[in-house]
């Protein structure tokens, strides 16, 4: 799959380092704290997380001498404190199997690629994986998912374009159960333009799933594109309302200086962050390591 690079390298290529060049004086004073807070807001951490970090720095270090390096470390520690509680990989624990993982997100967020990466990841862990092509609205979506399924060699249940997603999901759960599949990863349509239709579609999928297994879907994973900045947060609001999100995967963290959006999401929503996307290749989905990400973002 091409060169595998360490997560930190993939992340730090483009991420801004807001704290660099910030310390003007030897002691941590209000002017420096202002600059730190502004820098954090600029890198998309959002006003609330930035204020929280400022308050912590004030409480612990105000008036004390601090070097730029120490300041960076102190900020990284505060960011890590926000991120640690939400770092939570998807674990395959469902009984009876399969664990049904609905994947939602707007078109272009990296949803299809993320489904393939997730499936590959589970497969590497020796789980039996199946995909369901529940995004029947876009002509290309089914084909794209099928291509990935072939490449990573996992079975896929698909129907015709414009077909009924709920019936595909029904068929997929039956097939997965018969074949002893551990994880069924379901693609869904991401059309936020028509909230009502999307809501109805997801409700119908849930109803069908619930009939087969009251616990399903076990996970409802929202895929967000980090390069969308604050707009990604707005998507959390909408999808929480229409789909009952249980966790997030943030993609394209290699392509943005706006990694702070992860911190804003963690701070404002407290939803589990399952993984991060750091590239287009199949092994570019990485576990979400809060300490590593905090060090790179600060
Ligand atoms: P979908 O429309 O949400 O299903 O999005 P796709 O999975 O088709 O992805 C849209 C584009 O984003 C494709 O070109 C992907 O290769 C790219 N992409 C997905 N995830 C990442 C990522 O983590 N980093 C980068 N750089 N590109 C990504």
TrEMBL record:
<feature type="domain" description="AAA+ ATPase">
    <location>
        <begin position="97"/>
        <end position="248"/>
    </location>
</feature>
<keyword id="KW-0378">Hydrolase</keyword>
<feature type="binding site">
    <location>
        <begin position="251"/>
        <end position="254"/>
    </location>
    <ligand>
        <name>GTP</name>
    </ligand>
</feature>
<keyword id="KW-0547">Nucleotide-binding</keyword>
<dbReference type="InterPro" id="IPR003593">
    <property type="entry name" value="AAA+_ATPase"/>
</dbReference>
<comment type="function">
    <text>Involved in targeting and insertion of nascent membrane proteins into the cytoplasmic membrane. Acts as a receptor for the complex formed by the signal recognition particle (SRP) and the ribosome-nascent chain (RNC). Interaction with SRP-RNC leads to the transfer of the RNC complex to the Sec translocase for insertion into the membrane, the hydrolysis of GTP by both Ffh and FtsY, and the dissociation of the SRP-FtsY complex into the individual components.</text>
</comment>
<keyword id="KW-0342">GTP-binding</keyword>
<feature type="domain" description="Signal recognition particle SRP54 helical bundle">
    <location>
        <begin position="3"/>
        <end position="83"/>
    </location>
</feature>
<protein>
    <recommendedName>
        <fullName>Signal recognition particle receptor FtsY</fullName>
        <ecNumber>3.6.5.4</ecNumber>
    </recommendedName>
</protein>
<dbReference type="InterPro" id="IPR042101">
    <property type="entry name" value="SRP54_N_sf"/>
</dbReference>
<feature type="binding site">
    <location>
        <begin position="187"/>
        <end position="191"/>
    </location>
    <ligand>
        <name>GTP</name>
    </ligand>
</feature>
<dbReference type="InterPro" id="IPR027417">
    <property type="entry name" value="P-loop_NTPase"/>
</dbReference>
<dbReference type="InterPro" id="IPR000897">
    <property type="entry name" value="SRP54_GTPase_dom"/>
</dbReference>
<dbReference type="Pfam" id="PF00448">
    <property type="entry name" value="SRP54"/>
</dbReference>
<comment type="subunit">
    <text>Part of the signal recognition particle protein translocation system, which is composed of SRP and FtsY. SRP is a ribonucleoprotein composed of Ffh and a 4.5S RNA molecule.</text>
</comment>
<keyword id="KW-1003">Cell membrane</keyword>
<feature type="binding site">
    <location>
        <begin position="105"/>
        <end position="112"/>
    </location>
    <ligand>
        <name>GTP</name>
    </ligand>
</feature>
<dbReference type="InterPro" id="IPR036225">
    <property type="entry name" value="SRP/SRP_N"/>
</dbReference>
<comment type="similarity">
    <text>Belongs to the GTP-binding SRP family. FtsY subfamily.</text>
</comment>
<feature type="domain" description="SRP54-type proteins GTP-binding">
    <location>
        <begin position="98"/>
        <end position="298"/>
    </location>
</feature>
<keyword id="KW-0472">Membrane</keyword>
<dbReference type="InterPro" id="IPR004390">
    <property type="entry name" value="SR_rcpt_FtsY"/>
</dbReference>
<keyword id="KW-0963">Cytoplasm</keyword>
<keyword id="KW-0675">Receptor</keyword>
<dbReference type="Pfam" id="PF02881">
    <property type="entry name" value="SRP54_N"/>
</dbReference>
<dbReference type="InterPro" id="IPR013822">
    <property type="entry name" value="Signal_recog_particl_SRP54_hlx"/>
</dbReference>
């Amino acid at each position: 799959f091409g060169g595998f690079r360490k997560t930190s390298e993939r992340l730090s290529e483009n991420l801004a380092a807001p704290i660099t060049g910030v310390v003007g004086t030897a002691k941590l004073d209000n002017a420096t704290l202002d600059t730190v807070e502004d820098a954090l807001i600029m890198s998309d951490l959002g006003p609330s997380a930035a204020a929280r970090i400022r308050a912590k720095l004030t409480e612990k270090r105000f008036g004390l001498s601090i070097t730029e390096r120490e300041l960076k470390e102190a900020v990284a520690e505060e960011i890590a404190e926000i991120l640690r509680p939400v770092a939570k990989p998807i674990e395959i624990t469902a009984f009876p199997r399969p664990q049904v993982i609905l994947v939602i997100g707007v078109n272009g967020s990296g949803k299809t690629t993320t489904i393939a990466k997730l499936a590959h990841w589970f497969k590497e862990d020796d789980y039996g994986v199946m995909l369901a092509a529940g995004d029947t609205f876009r002509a290309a979506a089914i084909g794209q998912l099928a291509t990935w399924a072939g490449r990573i060699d996992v079975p896929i249940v698909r129907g015709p374009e414009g077909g009924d997603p709920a019936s595909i999901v029904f068929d997929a759960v039956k097939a997965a159960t018969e074949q002893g599949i551990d994880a069924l990863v379901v693609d869904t349509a991401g059309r936020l333009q028509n909230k009502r239709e999307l809501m109805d579609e997801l409700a119908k999928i849930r109803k069908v799933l619930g009939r087969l297994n009251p616990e399903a879907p076990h996970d409802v994973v929202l895929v967000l594109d980090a390069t969308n900045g604050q707009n990604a947060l707005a998507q959390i609001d909408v999808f929480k309302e229409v789909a009952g999100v249980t966790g997030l995967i943030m993609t394209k963290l290699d392509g943005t200086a706006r990694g702070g959006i992860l911190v804003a999401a963690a701070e404002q929503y407290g939803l589990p962050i399952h993984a991060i996307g750091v590239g287009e290749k199949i092994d570019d989905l990485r576990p979400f390591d809060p300490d590593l990400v905090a060090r790179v973002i600060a």
